[in-house]
Amino acid sequence: MNETFELSGEYIALCDLLKACNVCDSGGAAKHFIAEGNVRVDGQVELRKTCKIRVGQQVSGDGFAIRVVAP
């Protein structure tokens, strides 16, 4: 799944982004998914659940990639 997410504010928490893009069903599931090391931000494994994702970053994992763009 390749998706583009339009960020309206300054940033979005990583767990909220995964929930908003339907990678995970809930915020709790997203936090667990991140803690297991399943998510990369700009190619690096990210374990911080509330890492601030900003315009221009790419979030990816097994079977998904999300590009964050300005609206």
UniProtKB/TrEMBL annotation:
It comes from the Bacteria. InterPro entries: S4_RNA-bd_sf. Keywords: RNA-binding. It holds the Pfam family S4_2. PROSITE patterns: S4. This is RNA-binding S4 domain-containing protein. It comes from Chromobacterium aquaticum.
